[in-house]
Amino acid sequence: MKEVIEWLQSRIQGDLLPWADQQSAAHRFGLSYRQVEEMALKNGLLPARYQRNRNMISLQEQIRLFHSRAVVIGCGGLGGYIIEELARLGVGHIVAVDYDVFEEHNLNRQLLATPDFLGMNKVAAAARRVDRLNPSVDLIPVCEAFGSENGRQILAGADIAIDGLDSITVRLELAEACRAENVPLVYGSIAGWYGYVGSQFPGERTLEKIFSDDTGGRGLETELGNPSFTPAVIASLEVAEACKILLGRGTPARKRCLSVDLLDMEFVEIEC
């Protein structure tokens, strides 16, 4: 719409489009915030919220993120931080998958958990959060338990899948579904002071190697618990991996795993 673009160009500060003017354009022309952001980006106008991205992410890369579809499986300790960071980064489509509701024991570490949200579905809380912090991002809540029966359907059309699970069995089912749908997977896990993170591309079987001697279940989290900081660290590493993969930048942690020990502050790379 030429009229919209001309109006946006009249409002820019340098080449930055302030949020107030994005809001005004949406109301003035009867558009969604997402439509306004897409028009701005395509015409070389950077929404001011992304100005601190620009020295490391080009305008064309910001457009790529805007059109990317990330599926986050699990919206708890890891997943809440992952969703938050993806939305702030500008990833335009986020599919949030979780069947669970918030309980009081989630309050110590889960970003989306608040006393007001106790009993609420985690994906509903994720949708509220994203709508408040970046309304140009389309968050699709899927209130289901991920598994082999629905995994491929949930992953259809995804550019990246990001693991926020606490079940080894379901994590392996996720890896299999990603292979079937040709979707790269960023995986991570946490327990107490410890965690790990890595990436698996279609055709690879890194997770099967990691868990070759495991009998399944929820892993060490039930034994060691989790503080507030471990999910934030591992989730941030996962989002960094996802960003690199979506943009085709850097060196993903393929066929290797980063083991994180926050108690002794040791980071060890393990070949897989």
UniProtKB/TrEMBL annotation:
Residues in THIF-type NAD/FAD binding fold domain copies: 50-270
One record GO biological process: cyclic threonylcarbamoyladenosine biosynthetic process
CDD domains: ThiF_MoeB_HesA_family
Signal peptide: none
Recorded GO MF terms: tRNA threonylcarbamoyladenosine dehydratase; ubiquitin-like modifier activating enzyme activity
Protein name: Thiamine biosynthesis protein ThiF
